[in-house]
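One chain given next:
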Amino acid sequence: MSNRPIAAVSSRSRSCSRRIDRGISLHPRLLKTFLAVARSRNITRAAEAVHLAQSSVSDQIQSLEAELGAALFTRSKTGLELTLAGLALKPIAEDLLRLDGEARAAVQAAAG
């Protein structure tokens, strides 16, 4: 079993990062952006959905791909398409964001 932390909370921001076996950090903001691109299949529409500049969305996707060591999208005539790595990440990203929301709600409820 690894001695790496499962989750860490940054003192500068309230975002929670998930750590998995290889020490990869999956920040909720990156996962939200990834899912917006996956759903819209378009960087511009995803940027509008997450209220970011198009260049920020591109930068975040590149950052996530670099962190994971795999391309998540390919370009096609009909827009961006998920690669096999992207298809594998999508349900996990959805679960992590759901758990992040549940954890925040539980903590807020417990804190009063």
